[in-house]
Amino acid sequence: MDQPYEGKVLTSATQADIDHTVLLANAWRSGASTWTLQQRTKFANDLTQPKLLAVSTASSRSKGDQSPDQWAPSAHSYWCAYARSWVSVKATYQLTVTAEEKNTLTGMLDTCTA
Predict the structure, then answer these.
(1) Do residues 22 and 90 lie in contact, with contact meaning Cβ atoms separated by under 8 Å?
(2) Maximal C-alpha separation, the chain
(3) Domain boundaries, the chain
(4) Three-state secondary structure along the chain?
């Protein structure tokens, strides 16, 4: 399976982890702390937004719950998709974005070709 953060192919399920683009802890700090249990459960399990990815366990561990200004995929070719996903999730769930996040996301979106 292709692993977008590093641009590598994973050959075993043991190498993979499922990553939320916007981690639950980041969502909590961005406004989810005021949500009901039902809203938090919906966010955590939402398969309609572009936010759940199979990534390498190493990528998942290094990312932790950091925002784009603190961590970015090492594969620059994935920055556009990553930023679009991050913005989509934050907008859909009406989560806040810090000035640092916004600046970094703007730079990542500048890598988009279309």
Answers:
(1) yes
(2) 40
(3) 2-109
(4) CEECCCCEECCCHHHEEEEECCCHHHHHHCCHHHCCHHHHHHHHHCCCCCCEEEEEHHHHHHHCCCCCCCCCCCCHHHHHHHHHHHHHHHHHCCCCCCHHHHHHHHHHHCCCCC
End-to-end CA distance of the chain: 25
The span from the CA of 89 to the CA of 82, in Å, is 11
Other Cβ atoms less than 10 A from the Cβ of 108: the count is 22
Q: Tens digits of per-residue pLDDT, 7-60?
A: 778 787 888 888 888 999 999 999 999 999 999 999 988 888 767 888 888 888
Q: How far apart are CA 26 and CA 32, in angstroms?
A: 9
Distance, in Å, from the CA atom of 101 to the CA atom of 22, rounded to the nearest integer, reads 12
The b-or-e profile of 9-19 (16+ CB within 10 A means b, else e) is ebeeeebbbeb
